[in-house]
Amino acid sequence: MDVRSGARPGEVRPAVVICHGFKGFKDWGMFPRLADRLARAGFLAVSFNFSGSGVSGGDEFDEPERWYRQKPSADLADLRAVVDYLVANGSQWIALVGHSRGGGLAIVQAARDARIKALVTWASVDHFLRWPMDVIQRWRETGTVDVVNQRTGQVLAIGRDALDDWDRYGDNLLDVMAAAHQIRVPWLIVHGTEDATVPVEVGRILAEVSGAAETETLIVEGASHTFGARHPWVGATPELDQVFERTLLFLSRRLG
Question: 2-129+172-254 falls under which CATH superfamily?
């Protein structure tokens, strides 16, 4: 877990927890830059690797056995543990910023945890089992599904735990859409019009079903799933700068 802040000793700042997405990790591309900007803006910025990410540190998937056993309910337990840690250390104002699958996890957590005071999702999923039905069927038959890391070509296998998790919790704990309807804290929904991974319509639907009285939507014209960010980092695009600025403005207004 990385914690970034310019706080003086004894000073408690509003905390923002950054949740990376599927095939992501805390040090991927834009996330360290977001953490730096949050810290400079007066927040305690917290980023971490979900235990099923397959990344122990750095930017390599060096724990394939953890990746194999990944499941969304375990990711939620990781996120709760981070929030528990912050509360135990004096944090009273906590926000979540989640990208893609991390957005779905942030929605579910914020809907069920009164300690969360604000929510930001970037290109969030609306469902955790985002594979075609024929792939899911083969997964059930063989017990594994392969995922390719496009950056390195590494093939990573996911086992049955994720499927069993969905069968057990898909209609309750892992129901992103139901959780969205239960959100009561201020929520900023960000999505790019050229997102080929999670279509922009998903962002619009999340805004429609949101139960939050204060739901803001930023649709970024021409932006991809990562708003143009790449790993290794090569700099922010105008689209990503727009997302950074709106996120910081929203959190500055909603926390503390």
Answer: Alpha/Beta hydrolase fold, catalytic domain (3.40.50.1820)
